[in-house]
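Researcher: Please predict.
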Amino acid sequence: MKIALLALGLFLALPAWAGHPADDDCWDNPMTLPLLGVSGSNIDHLDELLPLGNTFGSHVLPTSHMYLNLEREAPGGPLEPSKDTTVIAPGEVKIVAIAPHDDTHTGGSTIQAFKVTMKICKDTYLFVDHLNMIDPAITNLTGPISAPYWYDPNGIAVSTGAALGTTRSTHALDLGVFDVTFLASYVSPQLYHPDYAALASMFALTVPDVQILLPSKAYKKCPLDYFTPSTQALMLTYNPRTAPPVCGDFAQDVAGRAQGSWLPLKWNSFPLLYGVDMNEDEALALSYDYINPSLPLISVGETVPVTDADGNYLIGTLPVRDYYFTPYISSLSLLENWLFADIPNSSDVYCYRNLSTIEDGPITDRVILLQMDQQLLNGSWKSVLKVQARDRSDCPDTGRRDLNPGMTEDYARE
């Protein structure tokens, strides 16, 4: 047994039979530290804690992890802290996986980064991503860490407050929790799983191993639920979201209605090898802002077509953005700017106008059309969403909204 004593904690390479809090029921040993040091009523170097459900940038579907945004070098400056910030173990945990990958920083430079996965209790794991260095006390036990991962299902036991490594990332720190026995409230959660059997064969692992190394988006849960009430309360003081659920919400599907996450119909065959998380550039979400959930938005990927004003010929694709709108700006009978949970399977085409984005402000020359209907696919009826943008400022009359074949991007989920 190797033992390395540090000022911040104790690392132990334990045999599989040794008892440890990370193997107990989750409510027996909640975590006590927010991955960073605590000074009085402050979390060291933390600027803000962002909730689940972000759809900004490369995340077309609502994110299933939180963000620890570190202090900026100066107000309004870049996200990097002025010096490396130590990331610490949040409780009595076991490190089971470390995955190196590349991070792209401001200006396009690339550095090696690391994602660390820890077992925190029975069937449940916490991961933190975008460390730029793993602490030497850990690498003394793991040996060299190379792509695609270092993995030990028995884990390296780490005491509360022990240094995991440091971060200096423009991406901030990702914080997520997953439970391999849990399924989030998607209409079809199985669509989000990677092809575990195929990956296990590729990497000579078991299916449970791959579930830990590449957890399904459907396994994710609220990280705050696994901290002590006092630590959770401290973390929430950095969270700008006040509406319930304060942790945020990433699985917003409503069965039989348009609200929620949609996957491209052309993918056709599930599961995807590496899961939806690595393939969401062509997906779409009809969801709500992750800070202010009273704001509905259409989060589009790279493939929503833009046609002429009458939908007869293609002129491009809609930029990848979150398109916000004000609900019900005109008569409900005109089917304009309806809330997504009110749109059923039908032949009606709904129109969204007076859009705006964070990047571009008001959008005066585009409307978005949606139609949710059912189709017989592979022997069963599925909900299919057709989406098209048109080059116009106002919604066409309801009788002039035909969505011609080849002029829409189609999505499915049931």
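Model: The chain has two domains: 3-236, 260-412.
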